[in-house]
Amino acid sequence: MGYNRWLLFIGCLLPLSCIAQDTIKQLKAVEIHDKKSSDFRSMNQVEGMKLTAGKKTELINVEQLTVNKSTNNPRQIFAKVAGMNIFENDGSGLQLSIGGRGLDPNRTSNFNVRQNGYDISADALGYPESYYTPPTEALKKIEVIKGAAGLQYGTQFGGLLNFEMKQPEDWKKPVTFESRQTVGSWGYFSSFNSIGGTTGKLSYYAYAQYKRGNGWRPNSGFEAINLYTDFHYHLTEKHMLGIELTHHQYLAQQPGGLTDAMFEQDPRQSNRARNWFAVNWNLVDLEWDYRITDRTRLQTRTNGLMASRDAIGFRPNRPSQPDNGGDRDLLKGTFRNVTMESRLMHRYTVGSQPQTFLGGIRAYNGHTTSRQGYVNNGSGPSFSMESESTKMLSDYTFPNINLAAFAEHIFRFNSKLNITPGIRIEHITTQAQGLYHNRVLDLRDSVISDIVTNEKSIRPRTFVLAAVGAGYKFSSNLEMYGNISQNYRSVTFSDIRVVNPSFEIDPNISDEKGWNADLGFRGNVKEVLRFDASLFFLYYGNRIGEYFYSNNSIVKRRRGNIGVANIYGVETFAELDALKLTGTTATDWKLNIYSNLALTDARYTKSPIKNIEGNQVEYVPHMNWKAGIQSGYKNIKLTLQFSALSDQYADATNATTDKVAAVNGIIPAYQVADLSAAWTWHKLTLEGTVNNVLGTAYFTRRATGYPGPGIIPGEGRSFYLTAGIKL
């Protein structure tokens, strides 16, 4: 699993990057409270080129976090974001899988995932899975806008998840350098190195990250590399041009899933030595930022994706079945996308009140290919289908076109009340053309029949989405906010045609539609207590899920439209400055206590499927609680975090057990604690983390496909140590 180490050296030296100085000035103008000590806040009404008034928003100041950044540990990074449910597939942070409000966490596919404002997922509509996650060590902040972000950024029930890279202008130097080296349990090693700065009209930033490890379970080693370069050039005070290049590549062995009995016996065991997963992700973004006037700004971005995802392995629907060699299931996917987005923001005043308009257009053209077949090519990471012995299962191309336009406006009636209506017009044309094999095997796995079906389908649709949000400031420290927004989620390519031994696809599967609403209060009390408490409701129509059905006395598992789900609950966040509460004035000490509690109920209220109506929605814990203590003395910081989730179901039938495939059943309640510490001295930093301090045996998902099928255990107690320097 070797990569050319020279790429690391080259990536560290490339002086390419940055964001416009005017953009940074805008960010500084809006980040006005307690940023030096706060690692979490709600977003301002206008944040960069985003309107967030009346919306449920959360912003993570990543640079202020005392967590395990090297492994992108989402349990720690998103600790203060209410209601996040996390799939823990591995401890390396290669893929991020988070969801909220009853939405499937798998590869964060229910969020519109972006980096610096542009798409990074495979296909935002047809295949919105994120195989690439930016390294946390390179991030400045993470922005989360719940459901109501759909008008500005496209149709996803979850909303927006945007990763913002570090900005070189913050250092105001021609050259800055940062290096972080991390070692950890089970042979983990990570090297992160970056260079950046500002000289004249040019700003640049580049980083290279390399990491490898053996994994907590056998057969779970990995090796990964991230390269990123970004430079912006100010032609004049009004015009800025920028380019960003991203390369992400990794190879990981996958230990497979377990049955309940295997998990109880030993959660670390693995009987899959021939399962591999490889990703090659390449992004390019071109930006033109035009400050037309002091009050009007035009931003146009054109970005492209050239990527591939390959998976091979032995994955029958019986995790306990030993792998004795022979055929492996190979899936190959390629993604070629081009997107153009242009956004215009205009500020003006009516009387003494500032008003803000934001409008934009989007044009997208994507081309995805998907091939699947059984190959007999040994046990290593070989992803070639060019063999006469390949038994093809499916071979498809998925052209995809998306045209959209949106407009939102903040109407401020006085210093207290604002209302933000919005509208989005969307046109989608999803196509599928290819073939699949329907093979029938006997008990000896010999082919009885093999029917080839050719398919060609086109699904054009045009629709309008609307939303309105409102905010009312009782004072500078207390605000009420609320919104209601329509949502839409297109049928994905995986929903159209993927051959999976664990389930089959309903040929009549169709798009999901619904709406969500928020009503909440947020603010602070004398800078002692910060809080955000809200109610939410999500109407999820035509929800896609998995269920059992009987066909000619044979019980099968099918993926299709299950029915209507109503998801509602309360999300609360509170952070107490314990020293200010007691009146302590010592500036060298810090002691904050926080609680992030989400209580959710989610049920199917209508369903054409037998035994579904009235059931709980899968992967929705009634209670999702994260709490912690952040303490510090001068240049020493310590964070202790506790996470607790209640029971969840893994499918819509609410099956409690599945002794054979283990893809259905209960996700038992679990509690996990994490401890992190940091010490800085001049330009040096030393950090340490113990994840899963108590050594809890738990799991967060029952996978139907890769990396399973079956139970995917969470990792046991692990240790990490980081040494860093900034020059």
- Terminus-to-terminus distance: 33 Å
How many distinct domains?
Answer: 1
Overall radius of gyration: 25 Å
Mean pLDDT: 89
CATH superfamily: TonB-dependent receptor, beta-barrel domain
What would CATH call the architecture?
Beta Barrel
> Which strand-content bin applies to the residues?
over 45%
Largest sheet: 22 strands, antiparallel, barrel
Q: Which secondary-structure class do the elements indicate?
A: mainly beta
What level of helicity do the residues show?
Answer: under 10%
SSE inventory with pairings:
Blueprint: H1 6-13, H2 21-30, E1 40-41, E2 46-47, E3 50-51, E4 57-61, H3 74-77, E5 84-86, E6 98-100, E7 112-115, E8 118-119, E9 139-146, H4 150-153, E10 159-165, E11 176-184, E12 188-199, E13 202-213, E14 222-234, E15 239-253, H5 260-265, E16 276-291, E17 296-313, E18 328-350, E19 353-375, E20 391-412, E21 417-441, E22 447-475, E23 478-489, H6 493-496, E24 504-505, E25 512-525, E26 529-551, E27 554-577, H7 578-581, E28 589-606, E29 623-633, E30 636-645, E31 648-649, E32 666-667, E33 670-681, E34 684-691, E35 699-703, E36 710-713, E37 718-726
Parallel strand pairs: 7-10, 24-27
Antiparallel strand pairs: 1-4, 2-3, 4-9, 5-6, 7-8, 9-10, 11-12, 11-37, 12-13, 13-14, 14-15, 15-16, 16-17, 17-18, 18-19, 19-20, 20-21, 21-22, 22-23, 23-25, 25-26, 26-27, 27-28, 28-29, 29-30, 30-33, 31-32, 33-34, 34-37, 35-36
